[in-house]
Specification:
Largest sheet: none
Number of helices: 6
Radius of gyration: 19 Å
Helix content: over 70%
Oligomer: single chain
Strand content: under 5%
Structural class: mainly alpha
Shape: elongated
Order of helices and strands: HHHHHH
Length: 121
């Protein structure tokens, strides 16, 4: 029902909306010099960054060959639909470097994340 939250178009729309809010509040601040517009700008920038992090992780930190290697390794162990769901979550949640750091370390949170994802699929 709420699958559109994870779509790229939803993220891009949020980014554009936050940029419009920032521009509008900046215009109003320079016209009136009221402090509440600065607070609105700070909040909009914060939400802009919050919405941009998964988009950045998915498209800029993972190279195509790294994605394909991970998908092939997963496909060898599990079925394709499981790998597709797991890969989308991992690509958005972790950058390439942090993913490999998590794999090397004995981090219980990451292992819980993988186990919960396996149960959800």
């Amino acid at each position: 029902m709420f699958g559109f939250y994870e779509s790229d178009w939803f993220t891009i729309t949020l980014e554009v909306l936050f940029l419009i809010f920032i521009a509008y509040d900046a215009k109003k601040y320079f016209e009136t010099r009221k402090r509440e517009y600065l607070i609105n700008i700070a909040l909009a920038v914060g939400f802009f960054v919050w919405a941009f992090i998964p988009f950045y992780n998915k498209y800029y930190t993972w190279q195509d060959n790294d994605k394909s290697i991970m998908i092939e390794k997963c496909s060898a162990e599990f079925n394709a639909s499981y790998c597709e769901c797991l890969d989308d979550k991992i690509f958005k949640e972790y950058s390439f470097e942090s993913y490999h750091d998590k794999l090397k370390s004995e981090d219980n949170d990451f292992k819980e994340f993988v186990v919960e994802t396996k149960k959800a699929v």
